[in-house]
Design a protein that fits this description.
The chain is mostly helical. 69% of the residues lie in helices and 0% in strands.
């Protein structure tokens, strides 16, 4: 067979081939692909939920702009994570298949303006994201897909674990201030406004910051006037 014939044969073979299958590794099974799509859908569903909460808190009847910043941050992160994972899916040779995003049923109460139930539901949304990440890791492990497992662990698991703890702490704060309505909710929202929607205790809840926190806590020990 001449070189020209070999080229023609290769062109015929690859012209009709599914190039995505060339990209697939043996561990990238249909089960793994469906699991990734499922988490993408959950990220977009969560994005819609947090967008709704952010809009509710910005209403004049509610006017909790610190909470609104918090939810808008959460929504932006969910949307970015969904886009990242969709890009990762295509990178592995998968196919994006968007599904309908159901409208969130959440509504921030304005008579009275109380944060407890909405924050509880937000905590459940973050927890569902974390649990789905764990499910995705297990699916990856069952199929021997170390690349996906590493991607989920490095980008999602650590921060989702922290988000769940942060919202759990926020729920406790909301329960405390709601027991005696008054200035408590105003000051809690003011804290969130000051930090532009970042929970004030987020740094303390981040294990990566433990060395900085210890250094700050023991900084006075170096002061010879205090400890001669």
């Amino acid at each position: 067979m001449s070189n020209t014939d070999k080229v023609k044969k290769a062109l015929e073979e690859h012209s009709s081939a599914n190039i995505d299958e060339y990209i697939h590794t043996s561990s990238f099974t249909n089960e793994v692909e469906e699991a990734i799509r499922g988490h993408i859908a959950l990220e977009y569903k969560s994005w819609f939920f947090f967008r709704k909460l952010g809009a509710d808190c910005a209403r004049s009847n509610v006017a909790l702009h610190g909470f609104s910043m918090l939810w808008k941050r959460a929504a932006a992160e969910c949307f970015a994570d969904g886009q990242w994972l969709e890009g990762y899916l295509v990178h592995r040779g998968g196919r994006s298949q968007p599904s309908d995003i159901p409208a969130p049923k959440i509504s921030w109460p304005d008579d009275p303006v109380d944060p407890t139930q909405p924050v509880y539901e937000a905590l459940q949304v973050e927890k569902s994201l974390l649990e789905d990440c764990l499910r995705l890791c297990k699916t990856a492990d069952d199929n021997g897909d170390a690349a996906l497992e590493d991607a989920i662990e490095s980008r999602f698991l650590r921060k989702e674990t922290k988000h769940v703890k942060d919202l759990g702490d926020l729920l406790q704060q909301c329960v405390r201030v709601s027991k005696q309505p008054g200035h408590g909710l105003y000051h809690l929202d003011k804290e969130l406004r000051t930090t532009k929607g970042i929970t004030p205790w987020a740094k303390a809840n981040n294990p990566d910051n433990i060395d900085d926190l210890l250094a700050e806590a023991t900084s006075d020990l170096k002061d010879s006037s205090l400890f001669p």
